[in-house]
Amino acid sequence: MTEGIKSIEPGKEVELDTVKGNLQVGDGATLVASKNTIVVTGNIVAKGSFLVEGSLEAVSIRCKRGSLEVEGDLKVSKYLSIDKRLVVSGNITAPEINVGGSLNAHKDIQCAEVSVGGSITIGGNAAIETAGAGGTIKIAGSSNIGSIKVGGSVTLEGTTELDSLRVGGTGRVSGGKIGKVRIGGSFKASEPIEVESIDVGGTTKLESDAKVGVVSVGGTFKTGANLEFDTINVGGTVSIGGDATGKNLSVGGALSASGNMKVEGKVSVGGTIKIEGTIFADEISVGGTFRSQFAKAKYFKIGRRGDVYGPVQADKLIISERSNAEDLFGGEIIIEERARVRNVYGESIFIENKARISGDVEYTDDLSVESGAELKREPKKVKSINYPDY
To answer: Total structural domains in the chain?
Structure first.
């Protein structure tokens, strides 16, 4: 035990064990642990930078206009305040960390609050309540963090559990659970992930199975596998690599899915929809082209000059002016002027002027055909409609 040491001169190398009270350290000093760990029962104040060969424990550490490098573990009971860089070869344990430049922990970090002006790099696991950095954050191990706020980019390579993630630039995570994600640029998850809400200005790419709540993306939203969602609102395009189930989906541009899709509420797409399998929704509205193996909804509408490929069944079905469709099945079917349809099977059918039906027209209740409409075959009134079996 060392008593009476109040200060270490700049540039000096001193071997220490336990120091009672406070310790002042000069710029460029080196503290050598005689028994693996230097224990300071009070506070450490350094005027400049210093190096610790071994582990270090103290109540608090303040580095004015300097950096701290610890070749072992670092543990403080109150706070760390470093003006420039903090580099620790082992683990870091501290309630509060404030670094003006960069923080680099080769192993694990456990902290209530971390605030860094530049970058944070963690080689192990991170257990943090709040983490903030002006530049970047990179964590190689698992991340159990309350909130992250970063001006530049975030990379979380291990399993992630976050309450919120806010990034000015890009965010890359492996997988896990996140509450709220808000990113100015792009967001990517490589493993299965569950997110309560996603708000991304640019692109979002979820490479594995994903479960999301509310999604708002300015550009593109893409999944490489199955997707479960509540509400998705995307300004550009949505691409789903597997099956999808959700409540409401609104896409400004195009929607595509490699599997089947089931939506409890409304699917609204300004441009095109391409579903490799079947789609079931309460309401489907498409501005341009619609393609699926089979579509079923309470309400279906294709916009003016749109194209429908594959059979469609709906309680109410509207084929807008100058649109084209194949086989239609429904309760009320309206085919507007100059539309082109192959076969129509419905309870009540209304065909406007200059519309053309090239195949069958079968109805159970009512049929109204305006003059100028072209029907290749004589309409038939039948007892029931033979709906597709999907």
So the answer is: 4
Alpha carbons 120 and 223: distance in angstroms, whole number: 29
pLDDT, one tens digit per residue, over 20-59 is: 999 999 999 999 999 999 999 999 999 999 999 999 999 9
Whether residue 245 lies inside any domain: the answer is yes
CB 323 within 8 A of CB 303: yes
**370/354 Cα distance (integer angstroms):** 8
Pairing relationship of beta strands 289-291 and 43-47 according to DSSP bridges: unpaired
How far is the C-alpha of 249 from the C-alpha of 211, rounded, in Å?
14
What is the distance between the alpha carbons of residues 127 and 93, in angstroms, rounded to a whole number?
Answer: 10
Which H or E element spans position 179? strand 170-183
User: What is the span of the domain harbouring residue 220?
Assistant: 209-292
Residues 185 and 215 in one domain: no
pTM: 0.89
Domain boundary among 199, 225, 240: 199
Chain mean position to CA 353: 48
In angstroms, the CA 357 to CA 346 distance is: 14
